[in-house]
Every structure is written in structure tokens, then in C-alpha cells.
TrEMBL record:
It comes from Sphingomonas leidyi. This is Transmembrane sensor. It comes from the Bacteria. InterPro entries: FecR, FecR_N, Ferrdict_sens_TM. Keywords: Membrane, Transmembrane, Transmembrane helix. The chain crosses the membrane at residues 84-104. One of its GO terms (molecular function) is sigma factor antagonist activity. PANTHER family: PERIPLASMIC SIGNAL SENSOR AND SIGMA FACTOR ACTIVATOR FECR-RELATED, PROTEIN FECR. The keyword Oxidoreductase does not apply. Pfam families: DUF4880, FecR. The lineage of its organism: Bacteria, Pseudomonadati, Pseudomonadota, Alphaproteobacteria, Sphingomonadales. Residues 10-43 form the FecR N-terminal domain. Residues 121-212 form the FecR protein domain.
Length: 337
């Protein structure tokens, strides 16, 4: 790997032990937060460790867990590499994932940024869409620019959506709920089909089949939770006590997973922003035409067809700057004789 995963794992375990110790200070906690912000892999690895430890706590008699607790309570500042190996090796089942790329723009599928023995982390590039099959039989479709971590444990299946959008087709397993954490919420299902989207600065959960429960991450008895029925979409912004529910066309809402986008009275600027997610050649919209409205269904892999449709249906022209950018501007009117 391009980054030393061993060192990141060791650092994550070291921070965990230090912060659990009796001598932890506010300076330690500030330094830990700074470490988390240095690299997305730091936060991902830390979350993987916490999930692994949570799974291990369900098996309190494991000697590895007892030893780890003893070291943490003694304020140990460094955990040896062999200690770290025990933490991740004992975590429930190793996740075996078969990747099948369905992106029209890439053949390689999602990059595995970190494959710990307790789970795996996936990242798609800005120009790809990828499908992965988990060891439990669940299928996850990742949109472009998505970061996702997975940990399949003995008592539950944990997924964290860190960025982007994903469609989940969850294999039924009544003994292990399938829990997706996204932003400030968790989405819990047993066997269902739903979409979770963090790509637009808010959380959107769309349900196609079955049912899911959406609740705050810090859920306590009496806290509000919402049960979605098929064709419902939940929309939550930061700080929402009770997110909004609305009825949607799930086929349209989830069309991105099949490489399609639907626009209905959509401002040109936002339609172009969405199409730009799937191409390395970016379209730039002149502010003078940004509010023009567009309707229709388009293939995310067919940028040329999208641009042609713009020129046919809107008073705009398209030109290339010769440096990989495409400009959409107002079409000049007829000149007077």
C-alpha cells in the first residue's frame, strides 16, 4: 500500500490506550483530534479499531481483550506490533469481499484503502461507480466519490458511510442486524433495499423494499426514531431533531445505481454539477444560464449526449477550451441586417 497501514494501525491503538489511561490530559485529546484530521485513513482506522473492540467486548473471557484492558488502565503509551495484531485478528469474522466493477469509466473497481482483519474500507474515484458483494451475501453499490467501511461481526453487521452515496441490498439475517452509520444517524435493517446519500451536504435515506429504523447515533430510550416504509425518503440536516419524511419515486431516486440520472425542472447548474461527478472532463456553466431548467433522463457515461440535449432544448451553446474543460453559455441571438 502507498501508505504504511501497519504504522497507522499502531498509532490508532496507541492513541486508544493513551486516552483510556488515567493520565490522559486535555492536551492528549487535542493532539488526538489533530491526528484524526491529518488523513482520512487515520479516522477510518480508528473507527475500525473501536468496532473491533466493541465486538470483542461481547466475548469478555477472551485473553486478548483482558490484556488490552490491563494495558490501557496502566496508561501504557506504546502497544507493540504483536499486541496490535491480536486486536484485529481476534475481531469476529474476516470480511471476504468480491468486487465487481460496473462503472463505465473504470475497470478496476473500488480501491481497498485498508483491509483490516476485522473489516474493509472502500473508496471510489470521482469517475467510477462500483458494486461489491459482502461475505454475508449483501450487495452494496458505491457511487462516485464514496468512502465506506464494513465490519461483519458475530452479533451485528456494521457499515460506516463516510462520504458519498451507496445502495444497500441487505441479505436477511435475523441474528445480525445490518447497521449503517451516516453522519449523525444510524439506519438499521434486517433484510431490505435502501439508499443512503451524504453527497449533497445532508443525509437522505430512501427505502425501496422492507423497512428500516433511523435514529440518532447517540440513541437512548425515549429518543425519537423513524421507521420508513417503501417509497419513503428521510431528509436530515445537521441538528435536526426530527428529520422530514416524504414520498418519492424510488426508481428515479435510485437510478444512479444503474448509471442514469433523472432531472425534473432541475436548474442547469445543479444538473451539470451532478453530471460532472462521473466525468474527468468538467462542464462549466455561465452564471447567465445557470437557472435555466432541464428535464429528462441521461446516462451518466454519455456526457456528449447530455451536452447535445442541452443545445437542442435550451438557448445555450457548448464550446471546448482545448484544455479539457467544456463551457456552456448563452447562445447568441440573430444579428440584425
Amino acid at each position: 500500500m502507498s501508505r504504511s497501514l501497519d504504522k497507522v494501525e499502531e498509532a490508532a491503538a496507541t492513541w486508544d490506550a493513551r486516552l483510556r489511561g488515567a493520565t490522559a490530559t486535555s492536551s492528549d485529546r487535542q493532539a488526538f483530534q489533530a491526528w484524526l484530521q491529518e488523513d482520512p485513513l487515520h479516522r477510518i482506522t480508528h473507527e475500525r479499531l473501536q468496532m473491533a473492540l466493541s465486538e470483542l467486548r461481547t466475548h469478555a473471557r477472551l485473553p486478548e481483550l483482558s490484556a488490552l484492558r490491563d494495558e490501557a488502565r496502566n496508561g501504557v503509551d506504546a502497544i507493540r506490533r504483536r499486541r496490535l495484531a491480536s486486536i484485529f485478528a481476534v475481531a469476529a469474522a474476516i470480511v471476504l469481499i468480491v468486487m465487481v466493477s460496473i462503472g463505465a469509466q473504470t475497470e478496476r473497481g473500488a480501491e481497498i484503502v485498508a483491509q483490516l482483519q476485522g473489516g474493509s474500507v472502500y473508496v471510489t474515484s470521482p469517475n467510477e461507480r462500483t458494486k461489491v458483494t459482502l461475505a454475508d451475501g449483501s450487495v452494496v453499490t458505491l457511487d462516485s466519490g464514496t468512502r465506506l467501511s464494513v465490519l461483519l461481526g458475530a452479533s451485528r453487521r456494521d457499515v460506516t458511510l463516510l462520504a458519498g452515496r451507496a445502495l444497500f441490498q441487505v441479505a436477511k439475517d435475523s441474528r445480525r442486524p445490518f447497521v449503517v452509520r451516516a453522519g449523525e444517524r444510524t439506519i438499521t435493517a434486517l433484510g431490505t433495499v435502501f439508499d443512503v446519500d451524504l453527497s449533497k451536504g445532508e443525509l437522505r435515506v430512501t427505502l425501496a423494499e422492507g423497512s428500516v429504523a433511523v435514529r440518532p447515533v447517540q440513541f437512548r430510550r425515549g429518543s425519537p426514531q423513524q421507521i420508513l416504509a417503501p417509497r419513503q425518503q428521510l431528509v436530515a440536516t445537521a441538528g435536526d431533531a426530527l428529520p422530514k419524511l416524504r414520498t418519492v419515486d424510488t426508481e428515479r431516486a435510485m437510478s444512479w445505481a444503474e448509471g442514469q440520472v433523472f432531472f425534473e425542472n432541475e436548474p442547469l447548474a445543479s444538473a451539470v454539477e451532478e453530471m460532472n461527478e462521473y466525468s474527468s472532463r468538467k462542464i462549466v456553466v455561465d452564471p447567465a444560464v445557470a437557472d435555466l431548467r432541464i428535464n429528462g433522463m441521461f446516462r451518466t457515461s454519455n456526457q456528449a449526449g447530455f451536452l447535445e440535449a442541452l443545445q437542442v432544448t435550451l438557448p445555450v451553446e457548448v464550446r471546448n477550451d482545448g484544455e479539457g474543460r467544456i463551457f456552456v453559455s448563452k447562445r447568441p441571438g440573430p444579428t440584425a441586417e
